[in-house]
């Protein structure tokens, strides 16, 4: 793994370089050039279909950190509709049909609408923003996402004043998603945000990463990205966005309400009942498992942009 890390320097992480690298990996793997244990993980990723470009204008106001190499972003995933192992989404998500794809925006809005994915893409200019992502399990990545602020879409549908929350509902189709046959979660995968959280400019309606259309394992063709909250709040492959008066029920909260609260803001001072949340392991660190863990920041480092929404709230109670 460390040998491969050296083949991609952070300075040449462009989609093209990544793609060429993947081709080189296929050849090396086919020639038996890696340790046997490495071959399945990398060759699966290497054989992924060649990605489709998505033009996006970088918006560096949101961050300039060094990004996690593409190969990790697209091969170490959580997407339980395709299995519970980190490698499952990359190996099984090929069966997901991402076109045609429609998304319906409904509930407490003046102008409910059903949009085709191509129409949705045209609502606002696509920006590329580098966000830190922190999974509740203790790992993190830095990902250049391509999308626009969800607020742009919300303004179009004109929520009623009674709309207090937004619910995100993922596709759940047994035929395309083998994991949906297991009852590990309550399908469809559902997540939610309070209205002010959904309107916060950081909340990104996301169509791509690294200047390419979202790989299926990352939630194609459209997902949400909420970088100050644990990763599970960022629902993938969304088919419905619903505005509600009541706090939506969410799949992980139904799984275990004590472990997965509705807010789930990244907070090093509030432990998960079964483990500490004080530290994180950055995936793709060249030192691998020997890399020192790093400190997790309150609101994942986005306090300047989001803390005011929680002023006066007891974050231990509203976890
Ligand atoms: N529909 C759906 N969305 C999901 C998940 C899932 O299992 N199903 N997993 C979540 C979790 S736990 C994380 S950490 C992120 C991972 O996103 P990534 O694989 O693009 O990094 O997706 C989130 N969105
Ligand atoms: Mo996660």
List the helices and strands and how they pair.
Layout: H1 2-7, H2 15-30, H3 39-46, E1 57-58, H4 70-73, H5 88-92, E2 102-107, E3 113-116, H6 117-121, E4 127-134, E5 139-149, H7 150-157, E6 165-170, E7 190-194, H8 195-199, E8 204-209, E9 212-213, E10 223-225, E11 238-244, H9 251-255, E12 279-282, E13 294-295, H10 303-306
Parallel strand pairs: 1-4, 2-11, 5-12
Antiparallel strand pairs: 2-3, 4-5, 5-8, 6-7, 6-11, 8-9, 8-10, 12-13
The structure holds the ligand Nc1nc2c(c(=O)[nH]1)N[C@H]1C(S)=C(S)[C@@H](COP(=O)(O)O)O[C@H]1N2 and molybdenum atom (MO).
Tell me what the structure shows.
There is one protein chain. Helices cover 21% and strands 21% of the residues. The protein is an alpha+beta fold and 319 residues long. It folds into 2 domains: 9-50, no CATH class; 51-306, Oxidoreductase, molybdopterin-binding domain (Sulfite Oxidase, Chain A, domain 2), CATH 3.90.420.10. The longest helix is centred in the N-terminal third of the chain and has 16 residues, at 15-30. The two termini are 36 Å apart. Mean pLDDT is 89; it is low at 1-46. The structure holds the ligand Nc1nc2c(c(=O)[nH]1)N[C@H]1C(S)=C(S)[C@@H](COP(=O)(O)O)O[C@H]1N2 and molybdenum atom.
Quick recap of the structure?
The chain has helices spanning 2-7, 15-30, 39-46, 70-73, 88-92, 117-121, 150-157, 195-199, 251-255, 303-306; strands spanning 57-58, 102-107, 113-116, 127-134, 139-149, 165-170, 190-194, 204-209, 212-213, 223-225, 238-244, 279-282, 294-295.
């Amino acid at each position: 793994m460390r040998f491969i890390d050296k083949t991609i320097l952070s300075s040449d992480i462009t989609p093209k370089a990544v793609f060429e690298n993947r081709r080189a990996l296929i050849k090396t793997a086919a020639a038996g050039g890696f340790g046997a244990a490495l071959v399945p993980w990398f060759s699966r990723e290497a054989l992924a279909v060649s990605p489709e470009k998505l033009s996006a204008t970088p918006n560096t106001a949101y961050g300039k950190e060094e990004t996690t190499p593409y190969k990790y972003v697209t091969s170490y995933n959580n997407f339980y509709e395709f299995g519970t192992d980190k490698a499952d989404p990359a190996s099984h998500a090929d069966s997901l049909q991402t076109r045609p794809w429609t998304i319906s925006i409904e509930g407490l809005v003046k102008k409910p609408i059903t949009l085709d994915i191509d129409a949705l893409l045209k609502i606002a200019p696509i920006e590329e923003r580098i966000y830190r992502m922190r999974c509740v399990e203790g790992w993190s990545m830095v990902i250049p996402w391509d999308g626009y602020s969800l607020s742009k879409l919300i303004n179009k549908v004109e929520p009623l004043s009674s709309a207090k929350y937004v619910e995100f509902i993922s596709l759940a189709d047994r035929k395309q998603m083998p994991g949906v046959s297991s009852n590990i979660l309550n399908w469809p995968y559902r997540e939610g945000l309070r209205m002010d959280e959904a309107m916060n400019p950081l909340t990104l309606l996301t169509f791509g990463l690294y200047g390419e259309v979202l790989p299926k394992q990352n939630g194609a063709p459209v997902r949400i990205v909420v970088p100050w909250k644990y990763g599970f709040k960022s629902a993938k492959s969304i088919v419905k966005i619903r505005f509600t008066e009541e706090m939506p029920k969410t799949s992980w909260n139904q799984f275990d309400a004590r472990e997965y609260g509705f807010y789930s803001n990244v907070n090093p001072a509030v432990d998960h009942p079964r483990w500490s949340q004080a530290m994180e392991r950055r995936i793709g660190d060249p030192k691998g498992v020997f890399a020192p863990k790093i400190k997790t920041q309150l609101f994942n480092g986005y306090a300047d942009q989001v803390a005011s929404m929680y002023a006066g709230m007891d974050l231990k109670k509203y976890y």
